[in-house]
């Protein structure tokens, strides 16, 4: 495993971290900052290049020092995910952060329906982000408004889905792999996919496996980060 000293961290380093479920992206950054300050008694800039929801796992790019100036370049890269949609139910957050609020019949859904539905999501599409998101409205996070049961007008945004492949169907579970542009909410894809099938749906699992040419298989666990500092 490559080793880094304080000068290299200041000049700029890029780390591929395998984020765990129930960690926020900022939790990872905070842990790395803590490891660096404990090792060298110095503080340097540390920032991540694209949020992963707490319930999602997988690849997170984290930059240090001068490399933090290039974060936007990493954010603009295509993202690749593996995940699971559960049909027959919906949740307010479009994932498992909130409890199921509606159950629907999915007995009419078949394999051909599912494969046909994926085609409608390919290319440039307009997507409404979930209200349980970190986007701001009038200076307040949308998830904060949602937890107060306040409504919000959420503008649609254009995204691009480059690939959307179904890997396994054991209804109500549908496993998929997707390649998408910056700004795509996979939770919204799951919700919209369920609507397309007239069955409801929410995101029950998500793992980011690629960002541009960076791969999850090359990432380290956050618990291993301190071991790369010398």
Description:
The chain has 6 helices and 14 strands. With 230 residues, it is an alpha+beta fold. It folds into 2 domains: 87 residues, Pseudouridine synthase (2-Layer Sandwich); 133 residues, Pseudouridine synthase, CATH 3.30.2350.10. The strands form 3 sheets. Strands 1, 2, 3, 4, 7, 10, 11, 12, 13 and 14 form a 10-stranded mixed sheet that branches. Strands 5-6 form a two-stranded antiparallel ribbon. A two-stranded antiparallel ribbon has the order 8-9. The longest helix is centred in the first third of the chain and has 16 residues.
Write the layout of secondary structure elements.
Blueprint: H1 6-11, E1 13-19, H2 25-40, E2 46-48, E3 57-64, H3 71-75, E4 79-87, E5 89-90, E6 102-103, H4 111-119, E7 123-127, E8 136-137, E9 140-141, H5 142-147, E10 157-170, E11 173-180, H6 186-196, E12 201-211, E13 214-215, E14 220-221
Parallel strand pairs: 1-14, 3-12
Antiparallel strand pairs: 1-3, 2-3, 4-11, 4-12, 5-6, 7-10, 8-9, 10-11, 12-13
The main pleated sheet reads as:
10 strands, mixed
| CATH superfamily grouping of the largest domain | Pseudouridine synthase
Instruction: Give the averaged pLDDT, no decimals.
Output: 93
Instruction: Write down the CATH class of the largest domain.
Output: Alpha Beta
CATH fold-level label of the largest domain: Pseudouridine synthase
């Amino acid at each position: 495993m490559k080793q880094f000293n304080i000068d290299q961290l200041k000049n700029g380093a890029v780390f591929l971290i395998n984020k765990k479920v129930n960690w926020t992206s900022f939790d990872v950054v905070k842990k790395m900052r803590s490891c660096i300050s404990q090792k060298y008694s110095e503080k340097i800039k540390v920032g991540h290049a694209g949020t992963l929801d707490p319930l999602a796992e997988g690849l997170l790019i984290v930059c240090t020092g001068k490399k933090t100036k290039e974060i936007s370049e990493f954010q603009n890269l295509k993202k690749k995910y593996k995940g699971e949609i559960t049909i027959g139910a919906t949740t307010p957050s479009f994932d498992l952060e909130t409890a199921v609020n509606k159950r629907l019949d999915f007995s009419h859904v078949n394999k051909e329906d599912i494969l046909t539905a994926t085609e409608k999501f390919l290319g440039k599409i307009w997507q409404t982000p979930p209200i349980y998101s970190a986007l701001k409205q009038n200076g307040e996070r949308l998830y904060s408004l949602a937890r107060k049961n306040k409504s919000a007008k959420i503008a649609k945004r254009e995204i691009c889905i480059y690939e959307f492949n179904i890997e396994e169907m054991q209804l109500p579970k549908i496993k998929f792999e997707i390649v998408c542009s910056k700004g795509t909410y996979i939770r919204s894809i799951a919700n919209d996919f369920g609507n397309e099938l007239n069955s409801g749906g929410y995101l029950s699992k998500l793992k980011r496996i690629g960002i541009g040419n960076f791969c999850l298989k090359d990432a380290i666990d956050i618990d291993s980060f301190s071991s790369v500092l010398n």
